[in-house]
Amino acid sequence: MQNTWEKLLEKIGVVKTYEDAAQNHKTYTADDETLRQIVNCLGFELKNIEDSAQLLQKIEHKRWQNTLEPIYVVRCGHIVFDAVVKADEAENLKLCIFQNNKPQTVNYTQQTVENKCIGHSEYVRVQFMITSEMLPEYYEIKLDTGKNTAYSVLAVTPDRCYVPDVLQQRRLWGFAIQLYALTSARNWGVGDFTDLQNFAQMCVKVGADVIGVNPLNVLFHDYPENASPYSSISRLFLNPIYIDVEKVCGYKPEYVDAAALKVARQSTDIDYTTVYTLKIAVLEKIFAKFVAAPQTLEYQKFEKYCINAGVDLDKLATFQAIYSAYHDKVFGGWHGWSKELQNPHSPAVSEFKKTHKREILFFKFLQYVAELQLQEVYQTIKECGLKIGLYRDLPVGLCKDSAELWAGNDLFIKDCGAGAPPDIFFPTGQKWCLGAFNPYRLKDAAYLPFIKILRAAMQGAGALRIDHVMSLMRLYIIPDTSENGTYVYYNFDDMLGIVALESYRNKCMVVGESIGNVPDGFIDKIHARGIYSLSVLWAERWNGGGDFKAPADFPLHAFCSVGTHDMAPLKMRWFGYDIETMFKLKMLDEQERQNQYKGREDERRRLLGALDWAGVWPQDKPRQGDCIYGEGYPNGIMEAVEAYAAAANSAVYLAQLEDIFGVEVLQNLPGTDCDKHPNWRRKLPVKIEDYAQNTDFNRTVGIIREKRKKS
User: Fold this and answer.
1) Angle at 637 between CA 632 and CA 642, to 5 degrees
2) What does the alpha-carbon distance between residue 392 and residue 378 come to, in Å, rounded to a whole number?
3) pLDDT of 430
4) pLDDT digits (tens, 9 = 90+) for 198-240
């Protein structure tokens, strides 16, 4: 029985035993009840483990119950797929391939590769091999058996993702920024799309070619303080808080609450409620004038945008309107709505849309304006000639109380959330509570939901960061009622193929955020498909925690940086303030705290040794002391660290403004909410207009440019 249970888990792709990536590499065995729970959350029915044999047999028979699979993801040099038909139909099969409903002339061979008797009927699995050349693209399969016609999707993928030619010739550099954190003399207390345009123009002047940004996706309209860009309500659309209201057609200064604007601008951290409420109030006044003149050219452009954005925009706007109507009346988000409203296709939702047309139209208007301004950013980047340009970020999941889950709840693993087991950077593990695609429902949908979010993020961007890229292979899933979880596997080859195809179609290179529990051989596999990895200085150490690697030993096919938004900036890390923050929040006990401090002392010692060896200390700021116990911040260490990391062999280096400006606070502390730590609220201490006069900025830029020029 136990053997059958383990076979079932392996067949479904649920892991029983796994190892974390923390310092001591512990091995975990998930308990059977948690495993059974996850099996059921994936859509299978298993009341008792003793019933494993029946479920295993049912799964193994499934392929024989459908003529074609929903989609076949193949490589352009090896286009092979199969079909299941009755034995007496095998000789009369007629295969047709279409692209955009246009028939394609292809040559193919077919052969029977397997037979199976089910009941009183004999079935065969026929393998087709297309011998004609086919370009990477999506095609439609039509298979006529003589009695029935079956349809499927054929995704012909390139061997590798798109990579700009310039990366074959030179190493590039740029900045990794949090857009919301940008400060300027003109913004309303949060970075916006105009700031991003101005930042791009600054990049041209200093020689930077890449701008990495946080996810720009839409968050909760009614709860602006839920500010995590990695917990959006839709990865298809934009966060209206980034709109520069003063640039919106129809804006008038008298619309603005001057007192509220002053508060928003002067707050030390971002006051999301004040900023968002202020912007929405002005946008509502602009909208009132806008809809009153539907004959204008601008309104016609808006209507065209709504048509092109289609049903996805309609569902988002409807969700937001319902949510806004009930958020102060019903507890529990959309799961607390009436059953009728929980179904986006119900008569109740249709009736709501009739009675709330204006509210729904307003939410569409917000997306229209945000999209217009983002397109202006792309145009500015193009005019500036940045070699890669905007490097966008695709979150691994999204808020479970989201429009995406409401609109397609069956596509996600039910009653579970994504997370991560302990690793060297986050020793207590992470429970993100994010909605994650169900690998089986995703394939049933021909991967279209995944394709859509890739396209939304790639369109216009030069590069895309896939957050926690290991999720293309496996994702750590935790039932809502538990603190314990395990890994669920996805169809890795299919997911890689779809990413490669969308990268090729959108001319957008792909970078995988690969920090944490990375399976053996995983990096080699994504590199083989042209996906660049992410490299951070703190992880580039021999044997995990030994000496720092020399810049020449950093990975070539990678985007390199000193740290990430989830890690303490350089100065904070040096002093160990992050360790103390976690201890005060009871994320570490006293023993773990002392272990962390000892590890940090060793890190300081090894870092100083690496900087000495590389000879990267500024000539006018030579090494003067150790400060190994965090008793001081060595003069010149920021510039030395930037020089060391910028000299890395990696294709792209990304500098972080928090490091350059000596920030001593975290942008995000994983595992905490804003009631414990002000995540996603930290403003940068220097305004964009002042970068050109900032000594630290100018010295660092000069160092980076020099190091990136050298081979």
Assistant:
1) 145
2) 12
3) 73
4) 999 999 999 999 999 999 999 999 999 999 999 999 999 999 9
Kindly report the CA angle at 70 between 66 and 76, in degrees rounded to 5?
Answer: 120
Whether the Cβ atoms of residue 704 and residue 173 lie closer than 8 Å to each other: yes
- Tell me if 627 sits within 8 A of 634, measured CB to CB: yes
Report angle CA 214, 435, 560 to the nearest 5 degrees: 30
The number of angstroms, rounded, from the C-alpha of 424 to the middle of its chain's C-alpha atoms is: 21
Q: How far apart are CA 434 and CA 417, in angstroms?
A: 5
What pLDDT score does 53 carry? 94
Distance from C-alpha of 416 to C-alpha of 397, rounded to nearest angstrom: 12
Q: Is the pTM of this model over 0.90?
A: yes
Neighbours of 631 (CB within 10 A): 9
129, two tokens: 């091999």
Amino acid letter for position 434: L
Which portions of the chain are predicted below pLDDT 70? 1-2, 22-24, 424-428, 710-711
Q: In terms of DSSP H, where are the helices of 207-346? A: 258-266, 272-291, 297-326, 339-342
Q: 679-706 burial, b if ≥16 CB within 10 A, otherwise e?
A: bbbbbbebbbeebeebebbebbbebbee
Q: pLDDT tens across 637-660, in order?
A: 999 999 999 999 999 999 999 999
8/662 Cα distance (integer angstroms): 53
Specify the length of the chain in residues. 711
**At what angle are helices 272-291 and 297-326 packed, to 10 degrees?**
130
E strand or H helix at 142: strand 137-144
